[in-house]
Amino acid sequence: MNTPEPLSSDPGSVPPAFLHGWRLWAIVGGASLLGLFLFVRSGKKDPAANPGARPVPVAVAVARKGDMAVHLTGLGTVTALNSVTVKSRVDGQLLRVAFTEGQMVRAGDLLAEIDPRPFQVQLMQAEGQLAKDQAAYQNAAADLKRLEGLVQQGIISRQQLDTQISSVAQFQAALRSDQAQVESAKLNLAYSRITAPISGRVGLRLVDAGNMVRATDASGLATLAPIQPINVLFAVPADDIQKVMNQNAKGGKLPVEAWDRDLKNRLGAGALAAIDNQVDPATGTVRMKALFANDDRALFPNQFVNARLLVDTLRGVVIIPTAAIQRGPQGAFVYVVKPDSTVELRTIEVQGTDGDDTAVNKGLAGGETIVTDGLEKLRPGSKVVLPKAAGAKG
Fold it and tell me: How many domains does the chain have?
């Protein structure tokens, strides 16, 4: 009887088939353990991957119901009703400047004075010539009266009388010419005092005292522009012109406000004064003019402002911040915060927008809380943390 030989403890004596099977079973077991681990891990919810598991900090606002004004905003330029370049009307030396740069003046106030002495001399010469011709006229008129008596007596001929009548007429014409010279000299003397033709603000001085000024100088002495009242020229899109025309046809003046470039500070309030009669083909806009009282003098000529024209007032609408509105395939929508601090996607119908406010006439009620910031992290059903709760938690 043959007995089996004991297995040798020498690794080199183990059969190759046995070693291959053991390795195969080790690989299969490891793969099974790895699969079980992945299965268990996949069953756990990752808070970062589930938006509903981790509350999202958001900013909110409460929808309110009321009236909302609708404005058209356009870039405008402040322009004076009229602008005058103050010039000298006579030639001469500028003796003094009577205004301060930037000063408000009234019509008739003295602005500058030219040396009046040459014009005073001209006036004296004209008056002297007038007096001389006046004496000659009186002598000729007296001679005429004497000759008329002599003609009636037949002492002199009619021809001599006619000659004297012609001489008197010449002196009368000379007197009229002399009177015109006197008035011209008086006018030049008056022009030596340069006064403000209109009321307004004086600009920077362009000529100093001591210089020679002439009536032909193009630059003048200074500019003068009225600022009370004052105009604002602005443009609105041609697509909106019908809204303006409809409101303008109802009568009354449409209110216009002037704001600074950042639309943070109101500079003045006025009313629409005129609408242009054509559309600018280059910009697709229509120019308009508004009149401002400018009592506080906040508006300056050639200043750039934002003009806001009131064209309508929406009554009894739900008003929400424009930042809360999102756009999607289904149209405009907002996220509404429910009592359980989750959000609901709500489709809305927008009626009008005015700056940061939007009027909603369908899909939202007054008093509901909507999300205005943090919208990119939200999905329907997401849990949110309101600002007060987030502050308390922190």
Answer: 3
